[in-house]
Write a structure and sequence with these properties.
3 domains; nine-stranded parallel β-sheet; alpha/beta; membrane; Leucine-rich repeat, LRR (right-handed beta-alpha superhelix); about 15% helix
C-alpha cells in the first residue's frame, strides 16, 4: 500500500507502532480531522518513507515527534492542533530541500525560528515562538506567523523573496515601521483576472491548505478551492509605528489589508483607493489623522471597513460602499457626513448644530453659574471678609448679635 487516506472521519482510539509495521511502501498518509492518539516510543523508526503526512487534530503527545527525523522524502507535513508543547528541535529546522508545505499551527511550540527551508506554504500560527522574525525564507505563497511572540521589526526581505498571496503577522510583538518594500510582492501587485484566466494561480489538493479558514477582520470567509486567489496582509495587534507607506497602494491585487491596533501615524495614503479589488480594510485603533482620501469612493467591493478610533477629520467620501457601513466603523474620530448624523459645511467641517459639544452652543455663557459665583464673591467680601480685617466691626457685630439673643430669651421666657 502506497496511499492511506481516512481523513475527516472523527475516528477515536489509539494507534500503535504495529499498525504501520507492514506499510513499508507507504508514501502518502492522510488522516487529518480524527481524534486518534499516537505516541510511539521515542526510538521508533518508521518502516516507511512518506512524502505527505497529514495528522491534524491527532494527539501526538507533548514532545515533538522524533520519528519525523527519519522522513527524508517528506514534502508536506500537517501536524496542527496535535497537543505538542515542546521546543522546536534544531534537527527539524534542516528540512529536506523538496519540502513544500508545513503546518504546525495551534500547538504550544516554543523557541526561535532562524530558518525553514520550505518553498510554498508555512503556517506556524497560534504557538509560542519568540525572537525576531525568521530572516531566510525562500519564495512563499502563504506565510502565517500570527498569534505568537515574535518581536523586532518587519524584515525587508519580505518584499524581495516572497510572492505571497497571504501574509499574516498579526498579534505578535512586532515593532518599527512598515517597510516600503511591500510593493514588490508580485501576486498582490497584479489584478487577478479570474474569469479570463490571465491570472492562473496554483490550485492545491492538500486539505489543510484548501480548507484554510481565512479570518478577515470582522468576518469569516471560507475560500476553499479559491484560496489560491486570495491576497491578504494582516499586521494587526502589534506595535508598529510611523506612517503607512504610499507604496502599499501599488498592491492593486490585494483583497484584505489589516493594520488595526498599532501606533501608526500620519495620513492615509491616497493611492489605497487604487486597490479597487479590496474587500476588507481595517485601519482602526491607530493614530492616523487627516481626511479619508476621496479615492476611497472607488472601493466598490468593500464588505468590511473600519477606521474607528483614530484622529481622522472631515467629510466621509460619498460612495455607495462607504455609506453602507454602520457608525461603529467611524466612531472615535471627528468625521461628518453620511452615514453619520453629523452634518458638514460646504468645506467638510462639522456644523455648529452637530459638533458634539464643540459648537457655538457649547461655548455660550451659562449665566446661572455666573450669578451663583458672583453672589458668593460679593457676600463673602461684603459681609464675612470685613469681620476678619476690622476689629471694630467684629465688636459691633457680636454686641448686636448678643443684644438680639437677649431679647429673644426674654420673649420666650415670658
Amino acid at each position: 500500500m502506497e496511499t492511506l487516506d481516512f481523513g475527516y472521519n472523527l475516528l477515536e482510539g489509539v494507534v500503535l507502532e504495529t499498525h504501520f509495521s507492514k506499510l513499508s511502501r507507504l508514501t502518502t498518509l492522510k488522516a487529518s480531522q480524527n481524534r486518534l492518539r499516537f505516541e510511539p516510543n521515542p526510538s521508533w523508526i518508521p518502516p516507511f518513507q512518506c512524502e505527505i503526512i497529514e495528522l491534524s487534530h491527532w494527539h501526538l503527545g507533548s514532545k515533538f515527534p522524533q520519528w519525523l527525523k527519519f522522513q527524508n522524502k517528506l514534502s508536506v507535513l500537517d501536524i496542527s492542533d496535535a497537543g505538542i508543547s515542546d521546543v522546536m528541535p534544531t534537527w527539524f529546522l534542516n528540512l529536506p530541500a523538496q519540502f513544500e508545505k508545513l503546518n504546525l499551527s495551534f500547538n504550544q511550540l516554543t523557541g526561535e525560528i532562524s530558518n525553514l527551508n520550505v518553498t510554498d506554504t508555512i503556517d506556524l500560527s497560534s504557538n509560542r515562538f519568540t525572537g525576531p522574525l525568521p530572516r531566510s525564507f525562500v519564495s512563499l505563497i502563504m506565510l502565517d506567523l500570527s498569534e505568537n511572540h515574535f518581536s523586532g521589526s518587519v524584515p525587508a526581505w519580505i518584499g524581495d523573496k516572497l510572492s505571497n498571496l497571504i501574509l499574516d503577522l498579526a498579534r505578535n510583538n512586532i515593532s518599527g515601521t512598515i517597510p516600503k518594500c511591500f510593493n514588490k510582492l508580485g501576486a498582490m501587485a497584479t489584478k487577478q483576472k479570474i474569469y479570463n484566466k490571465v491570472f492562473t494561480p496554483k490550485i492545491y489538493d492538500f486539505p489543510f491548505y484548501l480548507s484554510e479558514l481565512l479570518v478577515l477582520k470582522g468576518r469569516e470567509d471560507e475560500y476553499g478551492h479559491t484560496l489560491g486567489l486570495v491576497t491578504s496582509i494582516d499586521l494587526s495587534a502589534n506595535s508598529l509605528i510611523g506612517e503607512i507607506p504610499k507604496e502599499i497602494g501599488s498592491l492593486v491585487g490585494l483583497l484584505s489589508l489589516n493594520f488595526s491596533r498599532n501606533f501608526l501615524t500620519g495620513r492615509i495614503p491616497n493611492n489605497i483607493g487604487n486597490m479597487e479589488l479590496m474587500e476588507s480594510l481595517d485601519l482602526s485603533m491607530n493614530r492616523l489623522n487627516g481626511e479619508i482620501p476621496p479615492s476611497f469612493s472607488k472601493l466598490n467591493f468593500l464588505n468590511h471597513f473600519n477606521v474607528s478610533y483614530n484622529n481622522l477629520t472631515g467629510q466621509i467620501p460619498t460612495s455607495t460602499q462607504l455609506q453602507s457601513f454602520e457608525n461603529l466603523s467611524y466612531v472615535g474620530n471627528h468625521l461628518c457626513g453620511p452615514p453619520l448624523t453629523k452634518n458638514c459645511t460646504s468645506k467638510g467641517i462639522l456644523t455648529d448644530a452637530t459638533n458634539n459639544g464643540s459648537s457655538s452652543d457649547g461655548n455660550k455663557v451659562n449665566w446661572l453659574y455666573v450669578s451663583i459665583i458672583l453672589g458668593f464673591v460679593m457676600g463673602f467680601w461684603g459681609v464675612v471678609a470685613p469681620l476678619f480685617f476690622f476689629r471694630s466691626w467684629r465688636i459691633a457685630y457680636y454686641q448686636k448679635l448678643d443684644h438680639i439673643c437677649g431679647k429673644l430669651y426674654v420673649f420666650w421666657a415670658t
